[in-house]
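Risk mitigation, structural track. In case the binding assays with guanosine-5'-monophosphate fail to produce interpretable data, a predicted complex structure has been prepared as a fallback.
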Amino acid sequence: MRIEEEIKLDYSDVLLRPKRSTMTSRKDVNLERSFSFYHSPKKWRGIPVMTANMATCGTFEMAAYLAPFKIITTLHKYYSIEQYEEFFKNFDAPDYIAYTLGIRDEDFAHLAQMKERNLLDKFSFICIDVPNGYLERFLEKIRELRALCPEHIIIAGNVVTNEMTEEIILNGADIVKVGIGPGSACTTRRMTGVGYPQLSAVIECADAAHGINNEGGNGLVIADGGQQFPSCVAKAFCGGADFNMMGSLFSGYDQSAGNLVEKNGKKYKEYFGSSSNKAMEEFYGKKDKHRASEGREVLMPYKGDLENFLQDLFGALRSTGTYIGASKIKEFSRRATFLRVNRQLTTYLEQFDTGN
Ligand code: 5GP
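Fallback model:
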């Protein structure tokens, strides 16, 4: 047994120090970024924000809505080949959509059928996703995926430490998805005791990924989960995240999936973790007897049109940029100085943001 004494940080453990800047308006802050990649020869430009690949937000409806904003929708993995064929009759924005698969044989069989029917060409991104990215088999499957899809931008995760980030990139991924346990519908920390404070995970994994580079580009990371407010998205960029992936922040809107529920005169939309009992029953028909649920069901207050959130998010990110003197998302991490603060203070202030 060993104890690591170094303090690890979550989003609510820090604030950003304001800095003198020459900018005159929030409009001066550009939210788009361009990337080239370590393995994939593709180039990408857009707002580096994406939905989680969850049943409530990784949907075709969301992709159709978000693509014009240049935001990526990471689809959940439960669509059939026929559903993909139907959807792609009217959708053609490969840069803003990601196909998701796991590491089971069924997942690779689905991928093979997608490839055979030329459906993979409709995606720039493929996301290979497991809750625990520390399994030896995961690296094998990343290598297999890279061999099958040499041109695609491959996202792989989830992990939270530098050495595994490096392994994942060297084994074929372009982007590493970072986060174990921070998700709002996730109970991994409570059930297993495993996890890593998310801001530190992002900082350490980004540092490792960015250190791996070739003439194509360097390794990249996605901060996945745990962003409760737009400020968390800004803090993740400041910590070195290249992309932010969110589930709950995209939930509760007209465009989000999940039933609308009324309770005590208030409206809610359902949001549930990908390994919640509800997801296991809904998509696999039963709960695997070797698995405990590591996700939960949440009722999200209904918030109307998703455009309300996008305006808030874009406005907030531009405002962060103005406060810290960064005119582009790319500059956030260079300009950022984090102040370690008493977490009670930020969580106390956040109560007022939500009106709770
Ligand atoms: P959120 O934005 O809601 O805080 O987090 C979304 C992220 O939570 C997802 O992208 C995924 O990484 C993670 N997640 C989603 N469902 C589950 C689940 O059932 N269990 C766990 N451990 N993590 C989940």
